[in-house]
Amino acid sequence: MESITKNRQSLQTLRAMVARAYGPDQVPGPSDQDWVTELGHGWFNVAYLIRLRDGRRVVLKIAPPAHVEVMTYERGAMDTELAALELVRRHTDVPVPAVDHADDSRELCDAAYFFMPYIDADNLAVIKPDLPKADLDAYSEAVGRANRQINTIRGTAFGPLSGPGDPSWRACFTRMIDAVLSDGERRKVDLGYDYALIRALVDRHADCLDEVTEPRFVEWDLWDGNVMVRDGAIAGIVDHERAFYGDPLIEVGFTPVDLPAFGDATAFIRGYGHPDASHEFTPGGRSRRKLYTLYLVLIMVIETVYRAHTDTGSYDWARARLQEVMALFDTAEAGGPPCPSQPIAGSAQGVAVHPDGVTGGL
Fold first, then answer.
1. Is residue 18 within 8 Å of residue 26, measured between CB atoms?
2. 11-68+99-117 sits in which CATH class?
3. Is the model's pTM score more than 0.85?
């Protein structure tokens, strides 16, 4: 994916980075051919696959150029990713890459960068179209199990991994979504809806956020394109720069519960730990899910302007999703309570997934 946030560097600079990280003896020589390849699947950072002199393959990831404006929640994204990798390695057995070397000095280029080992595996998003349904479901269940384990990491406050945090999830999330809306207003992004209308809608439905009282590590970007698989198992999960402490129900794996355009969440939820994978949540959880899907889709619309996409395909797709998620609020807007506190009578026991494997009000 092409984006102005991709901070490409010259071969000379890449060689200097390799020398700093692994030593001069690992810098590919003048006769070495095809020692560096740009990995093109990412949407934000540029990433290079590099073959060192001794044959090892590593990945170099470089943050966006200093002069490129990014969205508010993306500031300091590489620091977030490094912190997230450390937390996941320390507290879970979910496979994530190690960090071989990280440099925030801005001496070799105008941004932070880090090296990690190359994961020799298939990208799930790439092979997904050719997988039998049974194999795809098995991988989706494995992603659900991994996501649940990641969500067991507890924080002391809601918000960025490195702080400052907030004791209230309601205050934290409403600031998050307001920041996205402010980003859109600053660049005059056409949402098809008045910004004030969306802010008012969020405010009317915000009571349900008070149900969330314990900050949990949220990966938030655990979609198929960030999952590497090999021999029927997850070999590694990559791209952790959007992690924060929040409500596990915000994880993107749950998004198809609201919008079918994002796929089918059945296998993911089954792997995560829902007792019957029926997609039934408590009413408060269902209300929060709509807010979280709104947040995600707003980002997807607005980021196309910040990325300076050369075609309107991504913007048009996201705009269609925004119309769909706004329509989900119609019932509540008609006068019913936006966030009822009791399970809906007749629902599948009013149960929802909890990161500790018990039912609760997600």
1. yes
2. alpha beta
3. yes
